[in-house]
Amino acid sequence: MEQILFDSFKSFYISKNARIIFIYGIIIFLISRGSSLVSYTFGIDDLQFWPAGLNIYSTFHQSFNEGRFAYPIVVGITQLISIDVYKSFMLSTLLFMASITITSIMVCKLWGVLNNLTLSLILVTLLILHRYFTDFFTWRIATFTGGIPFVMCMYAVLNKNNSFKSIFASTLIFVFGLGIHQIPLEFVSVALVLSIPLNIYYKTFNIKSCTQKFTVVILGTLVYIFFAKLFIAYGNIKTLGRDKIILLDNFPLVYNRTIELAKLFLFSDTIVRPFQRLALVLLCFISLFFIQRNFRQNKYYLVNSLLFLLSVFFGFILSVSLTIVSSAWMPVFRNLSSIGLVWAFIAVVAYKESNDLFKKVTLTSVFLISLGFIGRNNEILTDQIRVNSRDISMMNRIASDIGHLPDYAKIKRLGFVGTNDSSLSMISSSADLSTGWNNFIIICSTME
Description:
two-stranded antiparallel sheet, globular, mainly alpha, about 0% strand
């Protein structure tokens, strides 16, 4: 079993390109989000853990009602070795950076571009720098464990699943990863779907290997759903609606949600500026033009163009799938972070298929998009510091006013419950996203 689990590491983890990509990934992470290493910021859910800290007891009920039955286990292990996940923000940030960088290397392996350093760097750049990933850095309780499930689920898919034992081991890893949080299910699904056209274009497609990978994802998802439902049912746990799938029961609502998010991505996203979206459209046209040109001698060249468009379409659908099909409507940005894979896919195809002139155009576009992403990520985290300062100042003013009450001495503890958007005034990175789940730097809701 041990040999099965570690076989896949030998193929790419110690390669020269993997080492270069890892160092590069950490560097761009630090440039774009390095302030989170030293700035103790918080989101709504973080504040409830200030008094008691993040431990197996404080996370137990909330984790189970969201289907994260493995999360208390991870928190319990860290507690045993004297790490308070919530308060160890520098360690949490570095661990998340390393985890997502390793995951990006795994995507390079899956897409068959690891041996091409330029293509790998394009992929890693757009994936790591995409602004939706910054949401993980604004919620401290999500940072420490946020990246680990991505590594686990991608490793389970890339493992050599050519026997019952290896599939069993990979499925267990996949289930445990989803038991921490479910976003990697979207991520892995998008990465797998987008790997198909790349492997077909470059004649490396292996139907047996592809089938084994999808088997692990499908089997792991079914086993995860079984255990999540089991814990919820026998624990008599009230959920938030994330466990209820409405794809068949209320398809018009699912369709409307999909259209809303599509319009957001294409036209109204204040987090991703119009210039970045226009540059992405340019890369799409470059990809389609050179696919048509390079495969014209092949009678299936129109099919190749259609395959590219369908891949982008299904990549988008899968990247928002967990958001649109559950009864609970919670389109927070970290749930949509897999869209970065679609950006990377378009850029990789554009560079791979184009001639020397348009390779330079592609690299220039990627460079400009990346600079914009870096600047915006810096701004988001800076704005969170500003909003948090306003929140604390507001609570201090309220506490000071309460201190003048005649029966103040009887008060043992103050609790602030509710929301107020006054601290978001004139904050540009406060994005308008649907019904209230609308802010990167969302204000505090509870503090004791």
